[in-house]
Amino acid sequence: MKRTSLLALALAALAAPAFSQEDFDDAEVTLGVLQKDFDTNSSKFLEYRDIPQGPVAPQVSFAGKKGRWRYQVMGKDVTQKDQRYFGFVDNGTVRLTAAYLSVPHNFGNGGTSILRPTTDSNWQLSDALQAAHQGAIAAAPSSSVNYAFLSGLVAPSLAAAPANVDLKLMRGRTNLAFTVTPGESDFEVGVTYFHERRSGTRAANGTSFGFGNVVETPEPLLYVTQDVALNGAYKGDWGTLRAAVRFNDFKNSFDTFSFDNPFRVTDGTDPSAYQAPGSASKNGPAFGRTALPPDNKAVTESVGAALKLGESTRLSADVTLGQWTQDQDPLIPWTTNTAIVTPGGENAVTAPLFATNAGGEADTLALSAFFNTRLTDNLGVTARYRRYDLDNKTPRHRLEEGYVRFDAVWEDIPRITVPYGYTSDTLDAFATYQLGAVGLEGGWKYNRMKRTFRETEETTENVFRIAADLRRDWLVLRGIGEFGSRDFDGYDAALAEEHSFISEPGEVALPANQTVLRRSDQAKRDLTRLGAQVEVSPGSGKLSAFASYMHTKFEYNQDPVVCEDVDLFTGQAAFCPGGQQAPLGLVDDAYDTFTLEANLAASARINAYAFYTWEDGDILQTGRQSGSTLNFNPNDVWSSNTTTKGNSFGGGADFTLVPDKWFLSLFARYQDIDGNNLVSLRPGYSTSIYGTNPLLQQCASGSGGTPCEIPEFDDTTFTNATAWLRYQFAKRWTAAVGVGFEDYSIDDAQTENAVNYMPASFFLQANNRDYQAWVGGVSFTYRWQ
Known about the structure:
Elements: H1 6-14, E1 24-38, E2 54-66, E3 69-76, E4 84-90, E5 94-111, E6 116-119, E7 122-124, H2 127-139, H3 147-160, E8 165-180, E9 187-203, E10 214-215, E11 218-236, E12 239-252, E13 256-260, E14 287-291, E15 296-309, E16 313-326, E17 360-374, E18 379-392, E19 398-399, E20 403-405, E21 409-411, E22 415-416, E23 421-435, E24 438-452, E25 458-471, E26 475-488, H4 495-498, E27 525-536, E28 543-556, E29 561-562, E30 580-581, E31 585-603, E32 606-624, E33 637-658, E34 662-681, H5 687-690, H6 694-701, E35 709-710, E36 715-727, E37 733-747, E38 757-758, E39 761-762, E40 771-784
Parallel strand pairs: 7-13, 10-39
Antiparallel strand pairs: 1-2, 1-40, 2-3, 3-4, 4-5, 5-8, 6-7, 8-9, 9-11, 11-12, 12-15, 13-14, 15-16, 16-17, 17-18, 18-23, 19-22, 20-21, 23-24, 24-25, 25-26, 26-27, 27-28, 28-31, 29-30, 31-32, 32-33, 33-34, 34-35, 34-36, 36-37, 37-40, 38-39
């Protein structure tokens, strides 16, 4: 079904009759009936929309003018969950605008869980079943507590659980704006209000009791975000001054989410409990608790000006200051596990916390400036500057005695919280020169990023741009090239993690991550971007076509880097001769796209169009597996080459079968996305690191890449087609009948398994996969003036 955006509604309002026109009243009402049929319970079919089974009101609109007052009210899909409204009243001095947008989000249908909700924010398992699982595990030899044992243990309960967990939420957004321009004054003042409510569920993050026990559950949502802004502007022949203040408030009705441990009814702990249930431990908590997004507030003040300096020069600047706070919600206790005690001997459940709340506080600064001038009729210069500074003033909280890991065990490792911040400066300057039909452009873009508590203190990137275009009556050609590089003064791979540990004087903490890893947002890299566009409209202009190609590639520096702190790892220095190795992380990231569009106005009664898009993404990255101790063995490096190729094509046509009577619209589209992941290991990899997996052994032995390929890597196909036939059987009446077809399929090795319990994890397995659907409908539209 064709959708109309709020932007389109706004443009329709701007196109309303001018004040000078005679008074009028227009109205249009469309009513109809829809019927749908689909073959699966997949949420993908109605992921962001609603298609009722029965009566619908696709559009209702009223517009008019009386004296100096104009008004318009429009509603789209007013009987549906994805309904939208826009309206305004305006008399030239006062203007009130209102808009409402409702968006359903359907993430998955028919999920299954071994837990059941007792409240929106608490999912539990019966004590009897928890006790039975705990008893069976306790009676079994530790060596036999493996996946096969646990899978058999929970299988009857999962088989009996109803498939009735739907992951879905509703989002409703309201925008109000009131503007006053007194008389012929150059002043304008206004107030805006924004309200968004999100309610429902989504797949939970963090519901885990350790590496050996993850439980996926629906996370409850009831968010309300409100935003009020006061703004004003003064306009003169020399330009405009503007100022505003904004208040933003976010509230979450749910502070925490609790979930039972399927394998224990009583609390227990030991040094390896975070690996339970398994051969290493059978302990752990009876239930877990996680904090949900906390309430927060923000105040923003801004001032700005746009100045006209002579006939050909423009200068504008804006400064915005923000104050963010998150200091209302209390911190949750150290743990839910009553068996855990602190190093000081206190019960961790009731032990005092390091603070009552996070005390979150940050100041932001956004500064932007724009300058444009024409030095001659043919030569122009433009410069843009932007600074964004996030000054995180949240206090650093010291966890002197350590923390609780996965509600399972106290880790006597002192930690300290890290208030990350950054400053970004961007300067973009370019010049344009018009030489007859040829336009030339040359420019430079500079970005500097300063970071706190990261591996680098500062990175800088320089990008140079050249472009040219040729314009004729029927032809437009444009080409662009960008070439740049990013660099840093120094990279300390262990610095970021060291900021979160409290070390005694002289004490050296062992790095937890690969010290030769270069993170993609900070690593040295080179950029190459090439593109071209062509637009043609020959002859009478009935045929027009557009084509574009763009190639973007980031190449990350692969020069050897220092194996930091390798001397701290006994026996590891032998794997890092000379103290350096090739870096790990992204090697290159390339993306190519080609688009072709054509439109043919064959006659006054026929208009046809077609399009084609080709996409090719190619990402190569390297990594190295480590156990409990950092591994520098170069033989254990793996590489992953992920490619994504896409082809989309389609077209449509609009026909006037009988002038002023019969109209036909056709549209069809097909999209195919083919993903692939080629994993490679080096010969001689350590079986103690990777295990004895035959697939990985074949990769390492060089017997061929095919066994290491994952061809079903987010492969999707989508086909849709629609047809609408309209008949205007009276001056004010139009009837329409339409039909639509959709076919969606996905193949993905990582997500297509239909088992609810896999090694160490419970999954909801909510359905968001293949579907095939038909939609048909009839409608009647009445218009009057």
